[in-house]
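Backbone shape codes
____________________
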Amino acid sequence: MRIFNRLLAFVFALAIAAAAVITVIEVIAQRAFSRGPVVIDWRAMLRWGQRNTWQAFSVELACGAMAVIGLILLMLQLKRRRPNKVSLRAADANNSVALTRKGTAATVRSAVLDVEGISAATVKVSHRRIAVKARSAATTDSEAKTYCEPVHEAVRDQLAPLQLQHDRRVVVKIRNRNREEAD
């Protein structure tokens, strides 16, 4: 969502800058050179504005559309963002300590890869859980299930010294070489 917000802000900034440049050009052309419209026929827009009142359907429709667009943009900004930090318990109440989600995921991933028989792993850390997907050396589903407990234990051992402020549920999925998943 951050990229979308930045792109949207960039587009709005370009539109406002373009409107400002056009306004400066039109004012200079009118005042200094007594010329008519150079870029935009602003006199036609002025005549349209003088002909239509606030109660005209086209004006009410344009205002309603802008209000809806504004509400949508407001809702997008108020939407809760994905947390990018994992809070840890601090030694005293005046300090706060946190790890990035990527750093926490890398720490957990290294612990999972240290389990004998695990050849690859991906870890995702969210607000409520830590999801681990690992590939084992097992060839069958029943053999893959035997890796679940050692992986759970490795993750718990790795997270214990970190002292996370909010406990997260650890979900482990182990795949065998044939890419079947065992829970």
Remarks:
- Strands lie at 85-88, 97-100, 118-125, 129-136, 169-175, 181-182.
